[in-house]
Amino acid sequence: MTVTTKIENLKPTDFASDQEVRWCPGCGDYAILKAVQRTLSEEGAQRENTVFVSGIGCSSRLPYYMSTYGFHTIHGRAPAFATGIKLTNPSLDVWVITGDGDGLSIGGNHLMHALRRNVNFQILLFNNETYGLTKGQYSPTSRPGTRSPSSPSGSIDFPFMPCVLALGAGANFVARGVDTAVKDLTETFKRARAFPGTAFVEIFQNCIVYNDKVFANFTDRDVSLDLQVVATHGMPLMFGAEKNRGLRFDPTRVQIEVVVIGENGVTKDDILVHDETNRTLAALLAAMEPPNHPMAIGVLYSNQVDTYESQVYGQIAAARNGGADLNDVIRRGHTWRVEG
Amino acid sequence: MTVTTKIENLKPTDFASDQEVRWCPGCGDYAILKAVQRTLSEEGAQRENTVFVSGIGCSSRLPYYMSTYGFHTIHGRAPAFATGIKLTNPSLDVWVITGDGDGLSIGGNHLMHALRRNVNFQILLFNNETYGLTKGQYSPTSRPGTRSPSSPSGSIDFPFMPCVLALGAGANFVARGVDTAVKDLTETFKRARAFPGTAFVEIFQNCIVYNDKVFANFTDRDVSLDLQVVATHGMPLMFGAEKNRGLRFDPTRVQIEVVVIGENGVTKDDILVHDETNRTLAALLAAMEPPNHPMAIGVLYSNQVDTYESQVYGQIAAARNGGADLNDVIRRGHTWRVEG
Amino acid sequence: MEGSLRSSDTPPKGGRESRDSVVIRFAGDSGDGMQLTGSQFALSSAIVGNDLSTFPDFPAEIRAPAGSTFGVSAFQVHFSAQNILTPGDEPEVLVAMNPAALKTNLADLDPGGMIVIDRDSFSDKNLRKARYEENPLEDQSLEGYRVLALDMSRLTQAAVKPFGLSQKESLRCKNMWALGLMMWMYDRDRKPTIDWLREKFANRSEIAEANVAALNAGHAFGETAELPNLGYGYSVPRAEIAPGEYRAVTGSETLAWGLAVGAQLADLKLVFASYPITPASNILHILAGLKAQGVVTFQAEDEIAAVCAAIGASYAGSIGVTSSAGPGVALKTEAIGLAVVAELPLVVVNSQRSGPSTGMPTKAEQSDLFQAVHGRNADTPLVVLAAHSPANCFETAIESIRLATKYMTPVMLLTDGYLANASEPWLIPNIEKLNTFPVEFHTNPDGFHPFMRDNETLARAWAIPGTPGLEHRIGGLEKDYATSNISYDPANHQRMTEVRAEKISGIANEIPLQEVAYGPKQGPLAVVGWGSTFGAIEEAVHAAAEEGLEVAHIHINYLNPMPKNMGGLLAGYKDILVPEMNSGQLVKLLRSAYLLPAEGLNKVTGQPFKVKEILIAIRTKLGNCK
Amino acid sequence: MEGSLRSSDTPPKGGRESRDSVVIRFAGDSGDGMQLTGSQFALSSAIVGNDLSTFPDFPAEIRAPAGSTFGVSAFQVHFSAQNILTPGDEPEVLVAMNPAALKTNLADLDPGGMIVIDRDSFSDKNLRKARYEENPLEDQSLEGYRVLALDMSRLTQAAVKPFGLSQKESLRCKNMWALGLMMWMYDRDRKPTIDWLREKFANRSEIAEANVAALNAGHAFGETAELPNLGYGYSVPRAEIAPGEYRAVTGSETLAWGLAVGAQLADLKLVFASYPITPASNILHILAGLKAQGVVTFQAEDEIAAVCAAIGASYAGSIGVTSSAGPGVALKTEAIGLAVVAELPLVVVNSQRSGPSTGMPTKAEQSDLFQAVHGRNADTPLVVLAAHSPANCFETAIESIRLATKYMTPVMLLTDGYLANASEPWLIPNIEKLNTFPVEFHTNPDGFHPFMRDNETLARAWAIPGTPGLEHRIGGLEKDYATSNISYDPANHQRMTEVRAEKISGIANEIPLQEVAYGPKQGPLAVVGWGSTFGAIEEAVHAAAEEGLEVAHIHINYLNPMPKNMGGLLAGYKDILVPEMNSGQLVKLLRSAYLLPAEGLNKVTGQPFKVKEILIAIRTKLGNCK
Ligand SMILES: Cc1ncc(C[n+]2csc(CCOP(=O)(O)OP(=O)(O)O)c2C)c(N)n1
Ligand SMILES: Cc1ncc(C[n+]2csc(CCOP(=O)(O)OP(=O)(O)O)c2C)c(N)n1
Ligand code: SF4
Ligand code: SF4
Ligand SMILES: [Mg+2]
Ligand SMILES: [Mg+2]
Q1: How many angstroms separate the CA atoms of C457 and A178, rounded?
Q2: For residues C148 and C185, is the Cβ–Cβ distance under 8 A?
Q3: Rounded to whole angstroms, how far apart are CA atoms D482 and D341?
Q4: Which atom of ligand 2 is nearest to the CA of B59?
Q5: Are residues A187 and A61 in the same domain?
Q6: Is the backbone peptide bond immediately before C561 cis, with ω within 30 degrees of 0?
Q7: pLDDT digits (tens, 9 = 90+) for C411-441
Q8: Residue A93 · residue A49 · CB < 8 Å
Q9: What helix, strand, coil percent values describe chain C, rounded to 5?
Q10: Which of A273, A300, A320 is at the close of a domain?
Q11: A264 and A213 in a common domain
């Protein structure tokens, strides 16, 4: 008989710092914080090896509330800081916390470049379709016509769809969740954490002060089953309160359509089966919007390729074989001696 | 009998400035310049109403060679300058000239935001997969393994595909061309110019000094017919030296495949017909890469929606009805009189 | 005044004590409506003819938990029978709606000042949230103050009972109760507030009337309660104020309006491109509301895009303006360099806040002067102006547009978080009477090249796209003086560098000579300031003069170039003291430019100077000199 | 030397004239290989024991059309029997491979200097491309110079005939012919060049041998042709040079190596994050080649990402370094502010170039000093160092890392486009003998908070992620002095602002006192410089001293903080002259700091100072004084 010492996982509350949480009462950020703490607990994470890096915004306050390492940086640049951290120490578990303003307005470029490079960290984008911290201006994800202090006649910009953008930038892991669905969110965060590369997760987050209920059209209890489809690898893309709706691909019109099993001769075999390694399918799912289509939730895409830092250190390791030291380097090429 | 006075179009050479063109002999930029000048000539453009705005790079030198208005700005920001220009004077015909470094590295965010806003100008992105002006470092479009002064062991970043990225950002007009195909390019530029909104055109441009023949794998005369498909709205997506290849959509594997008419029972009816208003199809075409697929050339996507500036001035016009003058504005709300 | 509800209309039970100046601070939870309460009190003071100045102090958090110390919101009102320029050093009355408000504001109160407290809010729970170990109403800690601990919540609830509100809604009226009491205490008219309540809650008249009832109840309480510490209340006589139509304005409002008006005076479209940032965002919000006046606003994806769009707008013939705070201006500096070398008009507004980096975003500082004057790569001169009061923001915004368009140059306009939010009465100008300075674009092709210059101003020709025959190319590369083509010629670069510098330094020839704001034109001491310290310095210098001290106040609005007479003027004082809300920036510029031993008086707390602090420094300085 | 091919080995036909110092400029088309020619000549001069200094001048265009004036590439070599510090004011020999090279370089030539010309290249076509209306070889325009117009192309073609090259390839050898002639003229050894050619073209021996033949033919031509203007050639005796192993280095090389070595001395990983920009890119290229030495380079998407990645790397325990030129540094300033307030080590290298904006990117300037010292929002102090020669770049890079890690601060290291490209011999150090300064990360949880400070240096504790028990959060918001938690407390912000300033100013206590580079420690005049003007000032001051003028040279490497004795030292001179390649920046800092009437000598042409220009200014100054 062998004795195995089981190291006890830290509890979710062990990941809470001693700082008072200062989001507005009722803010969706609380639930996301909880899901993050749960994820770390359930995955047996160690505080000292975990780093939260954020930009500026309400969402970007999250690192202060974690008992791990944290760096609250400047607006929009968190992915660049995180890249530097991973280049120094690839073994750290790094989480980038950002918002729709931080990550898609001022920081859009860094986000895209991190995604294409596939540096191994998680990006959690808290999408509340507003700039919460600066008091509610419309953001790059706000729907056209949004009235806000800076758009009193309604915003006129067409919004980004964060997951579509991420896939367009070459992201290798793209997922979506809803703030209040803490359990699902936790599972999604676990997948993101496990993914070797940049894992992008968009979270629909309710800003109770400046944009209350902006996602109610598909998150409200009475519509959520009919207007959300949870993507599960290998499973047909079915949804609906009666579990009889599904997604089918129409090859002539080259588009995705919602069908009902049993209507117009539709059977279960017609329904698309989710393949999270198919980028085309992921892009189709990411682009769907209520009310015509359900919002796709869960891991839309996951495709493993080499991480950036593994390649950096791979090249270094290869070069080190037989490499010279710096004293040799500065003597390479033509040198001459002046005799005394 | 009526007499119509036909205003003579300016000739292509009338659009050349008096400045010596200072690209390297043999650079692909010359051909693109020619296509631009032809486009303006054939479309009857007026010099005084035409503005070329660029960032920094070899490509961004183009405005100096045009006899129109021109603004050679700073690295990566041309779309933002162009937005300011259009906000002032929507009637100007504005062209943004950028490179893969200027437009996708430092300037990626401005490009994406211009595309989603749909400001009415053309963006010509000269993609030579290198930073020409700074002497040949790898760029965000360089293929993995590119050896360059800054990547002596080969680059390790996964590249962007510019058209895929543009579609992901919500672009409403996306097209592609090859520097040497001046005639096709001219037609594509005409379409871009006519499009009311941000028209994005990626041009494969040969940098003879730092990246010679990097596109030869699909532009060389002996392979171009087999490895390019020209997308034409309403026409089947056929190509090949013998015009017998085509693109078909495989709905089960949710992907596009190359088929040969006559082989395995494939007929012309199986071939996808190009619908330039279908964003899904455009994304599929944009993502194809040789050698497994042909490179899609031409107008991949064109979908008309309101331009940004028309909405700006629409809101202003609506507000002006019955609007107060500034003297009234500063008297709005609570005021009181102090008597003398 | 007809229908007036001023308590002086009813015969007072005793004589009101007359006071010259009073400072009150209203403090409470974010949800307690302190900003509205304070503003209404200020308005009522303006209407009785007092001069006044106010200062709000918001919490940094959007919506902090109720009862927490960091959720306290405060509003200070200084009203006076004299001309005043600051919201006052130390309130003599603190209205504290809960324990946290008392805790965080008590230290600022005048020793011996009055504290008006809602006793009902001093529950154990609230005391804990405010981190009080003992109830301050029950221990000795408030000794020495005049404490009025009243059952404000209960009295309010009683007053609003007839209107059938929920308990939460009822309690929301308690700020009006407190306001009513203060209005009684200082003999203010309730009518404007009553009108405002009825307008604001036009759709919910029960709320409006409940608030009116609370207001009246508070007032009646003062009149009837015969409070031991209070007597018969005070009166503050009207001040001597220039006649005309007034309103209360914050610096954000005047600055935004000044930009719109400046563009109109220049006969140009205003294109305002910005990215939100505290405390600058309000300028964007206000201008976004001026669509009917033809203002174009553009919320860009970041500060860089904002300044670039503004420059693009100027290139095309608008006046392009961008606005931010220090961290955002840092991002704009590369593009501002382009505007300098392309010689395009541009206004960059910097609402300075506490730094470095994110710092304390809601707090004011004057620490971006170096950034404004020196904060670019290369020799990149531009105009730097600073506004010194909310009203002055209006004029400075107009002057910025005038200089930018006349000299084809970027202008950096410095303001700060204090000016942005502080408010004061403003004599509303008649825009039609302001001097216009219409821009004429260049249209004549003869001998045209884009950097041909006006002999006098050295400004280049402004020729805009759309003009036939003037097609040209500009950019960031150095250009030939004579042809405007790209040039790497060494002598040409020297010449162009010099002409860019001369154009800016030459502006000193037309701007007003530096005046002495107050005091002798030479003497033992000048206090030299810039920006929002104006009020505090001016009041301190006045006070020193009353003490018989010989001291002058010089306030610099034109920071680059400085007025021509600056060196000579300053040389006339033995000592120069430069108070700044930074570690010493203007003082270094003055020392370098004029080789005078100017000394700094520096405060970097995120708080404006107190009059007293400057006065003490003056006394010390002159004491030493004697 | 065994196997030496120096012409002095063969008995000279007459006596060589001995010369102390010579300046040669090789100029030709971009395709003519002038940079290689010049480098080889320099190397051969180093090997005979001359001191030397070289300066390349590339065209701004990547590949300009052949024969155009803007496609001319030049390389100047100054070699001497004395110690020299500059590539020389005016060449006395100009080797001009085509009309455009003559046209663009003639003005710099010493009056009476020698011109060596390839007559064959003076075709009508080339004359037209160079915009000559008359053939300068046929009109009077070259009168007064010693012109050697030779059939260089034809002679080269004849020499390489045996190797069967194409005509184009044959003509490519003509630079070696010219080099051979010059080697004869100055009595240099051909062997190293021959070795180099054989190594370089190891795979194409016919090319190697053709080049060798051309080199030898040029040499033989000098020896046999009895050229009227030439005599028997010259010799330049060896200089007194410290013994040891040498190599030629540019500032880019030494700077890159200094960073790698500095990281090793600190026992840290170097993470170098950058975005290409002229003239900074070479540092990235060189470090990207040091993978075997464990250097991590990151080509970021822009300058902002680069600096942020460098800061992130430092946060995690590397030494993060970023590098750019002025416009790129402008973009980094917001993030640098974060590094200041987060108190993380960081090195920012600025290879200054001509501005404003894009300016003249390939030309040097010293105009980013203000940006370095003052160019951030808020009170944001950091360390500013400047390198003054290619060799000094090595030491300054090491010192930057030492100070950054010891004081937990960003360091701005200023160099410029001139230092980046100029080259000089470098006594190669033994890295193992350099002083190490290994970093010890904080690991003890007792009483830990991230902004706890070392009593002496005031540096905060550096605790890196991965350390158990020290988990903490840092950021850009102001933090409490005692707990490191976020704080909006006014007095705390004052204290933190002061401690950040004191930490930096306290560095003055450990850096070396300012020395006088040359001349008296007090007197009528000090010439005070910084950066790449070192050589020109030093040579000018030497020359002035030889004329009997009493003048000192002081060169400042530590620009912020400045050495403690600076004020006292400068006060010992009646006049202070500050030559700068800008419109006057150091001069303003000195005036402000020490209230001394320092005056500027400013040159903003994109060209380095000539020794003569400074010498004249010294004369004028002292002439006036007498
Ligand atoms: C350089 C800079 N520009 C602007 C700001 C102001 N700012 C802070 S947060 C923010 C937007 C935040 O929006 P988002 O990322 O969506 O966060 P949320 O508050 O909604 O969670 C802005 C504009 C800043 N801090 N720094
Ligand atoms: C702020 C700034 N950073 C960097 C540079 C240097 N730079 C100029 S052009 C360029 C890249 C150009 O690449 P691309 O846009 O692809 O143009 P190409 O030369 O290949 O046409 C870079 C890095 C600059 N001019 N400004
Ligand atoms: S403003 Fe909105 S996003 Fe920010 S804390 Fe409050 S509820 Fe949350
Ligand atoms: S470097 Fe390349 S892109 Fe630039 S001009 Fe030369 S060939 Fe063209
Ligand atoms: Mg948000
Ligand atoms: Mg390129």
Answers
A1: 61
A2: no
A3: 15
A4: 21
A5: yes
A6: yes
A7: 999 999 999 999 999 999 999 999 999 999 9
A8: yes
A9: 40, 20, 40
A10: A273
A11: no
A212 & A245 share domain? no
For ligand 2, whether the C-beta of B211 sits within 6 Å is: no
Chain A hits for B280, CB-CB cut-off 8 Å, are 254-256, 283-284, 287
Find the A49 Cα to ligand 5 centroid distance in Å: 28
Quick one: which atom of ligand 2 is closest to the CA of B29?
21
Take residue C112 and report the two structure tokens written for it. Answer: 């011996």
Q: Which of C68, C379, C481, C594 to mutate to test the interface with D (most CBs of D within 10 A)?
A: C379
Give chain D's end-to-end CA distance (angstroms, integer).
Answer: 54
Q: Mean of the pLDDT values across residues D82-102?
A: 95
* C/D interface, count of CB pairs below 8 Å: 229
Query: Both B21 and B158 in a single domain?
Result: yes
- A167 and A253 belong to one structural domain: no
Mean pLDDT of A23-43: 97
Tally Cβ neighbours within 10 Å of residue C143.
7
Indicate the pLDDT class of residue D63, thresholds 50, 70 and 90.
confident
From C193, C12, C211, C174, select the one nearest C95 (Cα to Cα). Answer: C174
Whether residues A104 and A53 share a domain: the answer is yes
Q: Please, is C522 exposed, middle or buried when counting C-beta atoms within 10 Å of its C-beta (0-12, 13-18, 19+)?
A: middle
Same domain, B131 and B185: yes
Centre of ligand 6 from the C-alpha of residue B211, in Å? 9
**Running DSSP on this structure, what letter comes out for residue D49?**
T
Residue in the structure block whose two tokens are 């930073």: B131
Q: Which conformational region is residue B108 in: left (phi greater than 0), alpha (psi within -120 to 50 degrees), or beta?
A: alpha
Distances (CA, A) of B137 to B3, B132, C147, D299, D349: 59, 8, 73, 9, 19
CA B244 to chain centre: 30
Which residues on chain C are in Cβ contact (under 8 Å) with D374?
A: 370-371, 373-375
Residue pLDDT, tens place only, C578-588: 999 999 999 99
C-alpha closest to that of C354 among C107, C537, C603: C603
What is the domain count for chain A? 2
**Inter-chain CB proximity B315 and A156 less than 8 Å:** yes
User: Does one domain contain both A251 and A282?
Assistant: no
The residue in chain D having the minimum alpha-carbon distance to the alpha carbon of residue C604 is: D494
Q: What is the pLDDT of residue D7?
A: 46
pLDDT, greater one: A1 or C540: C540
**B106's tokens:** 């430092």
Is the pLDDT at D626 greater than 50, yes or no?
no
* Of the partner residues D68, D291, D302, the one whose CB lies closest to the CB of residue B76: D302
**Calpha distance C183→C222 (Å, rounded):** 9
Whether B208 is in the pocket of ligand 4, judged by its Cβ within 6 Å, is yes
Residue B208 placed within a domain: yes
Q: Is the CB of D276 under 6 A from ligand 2?
A: yes
Distance of CA B129 from the midpoint of ligand 2 (Å) = 12
What domain range includes position B299?
12-235+274-309
C-alpha distances in Å from residue C361, one per residue of A24, C175, C353, C365, D530: 18, 28, 6, 10, 37
Q: Is the CB of B298 under 6 A from ligand 2?
A: no
Can you read off the two tokens belonging to residue D520?
């008296």
The closest alpha carbon to C382, from C397, C371, C396, belongs to C371
List, in sequence order, the alpha helices (H) in D552-610.
Answer: 566-571, 586-594
Residue D17: CB partners within 8 Å, gap ≥ 6?
A: D231, D232, D233, D234, D235
Q: Please name the residue ranges forming H helices in C136-276.
A: 152-160, 167-171, 174-185, 191-200, 205-225, 251-265
DSSP letter at D376 equals S
User: Alpha-carbon distance C282 to C277, whole Å?
Assistant: 9
A55, A297, A315, A308: which is closest to A170 by C-alpha? Answer: A308
Distance B76 CA to ligand 6 centre (A): 12
Question: Which residue is listed with tokens 């006044």?
Answer: C52
Q: Which residues fall within 8 angstroms of residue B238, CB to CB, at 6 or more apart?
A: B229, B244, B245, B246, B261, B268, B271
